[in-house]
Amino acid sequence: MSTSLRKRTRTQARELFTGIWHNQHNSELVLQVDEDGLVSGTFSPGVGAERSLCGQYRVTGFACNDVLAFSVAFEEYGSVTSWSGQLAVAENDNAPTIHSLWHMSVDVGDQAESTLWKSMISGADNFVRGPRQSETNNLKTASSHPLWLYPEKFEIDDSYCCE
What are phi and psi of 92, to 5 degrees? Predict the structure, then answer.
């Protein structure tokens, strides 16, 4: 790939992805793409009724053209989630949307390592440009945040989590 083409794809990625996004779980993603295509930012899960309950987590990843990959470490929950997706514009409403698949791995401890597959969960998220619309999430679908998976493990009232 020529240097000029590589620079153009990185510039395009920066223009396409830098900004605020939200998904169907009411999570908020703030992205910054630098001149090398490296992604940084923050992820605020929307699985809870209160923003302070779920916290804000560091994002790191890569972007090229209209393709994006990023990860978030939910360290206090012993889990990491990674997303990979592509930006598209919906014909019906012209809204830029990142269509992504995610994989979450949760530390299950040494005694459960014979069933590691149970600690790996996959799903899909669509991130639409703009801040989240409210502070609550009423969706009852799998979320990419560990609170959804094990609310009792973290002594969290499960009314804050998706079921």
Answer: -75, -30
Q: What is the pTM for the complete model shown?
A: 0.78
Domain range spanning residue 34? 3-160
- Give backbone dihedrals phi and psi of 24, rounded to 5 degrees, phi first: -70, -10
> First CA to last CA across the chain, in angstroms?
46
Which CATH number belongs to the domain containing residue 56 in this structure? 2.40.128.30
Number of structural domains in the chain: 1
Consecutive H or E run containing 72: strand 67-74
- Range scoring the smallest mean pLDDT among 31-45, 85-99, 146-160: 146-160
The DSSP symbol for 4 reads: H
Sign of the torsion angle spanned by Cα atoms 142, 143, 146, 148: negative
pLDDT tens digits along 95-135: 899 999 999 998 887 776 677 777 888 999 999 998 877 65
Separation CA 59–CA 83 (nearest Å): 10
- 59's CB contacts (< 8 A; 6+ apart) are 29, 30, 31, 39, 40, 41, 42, 43, 70, 71, 72
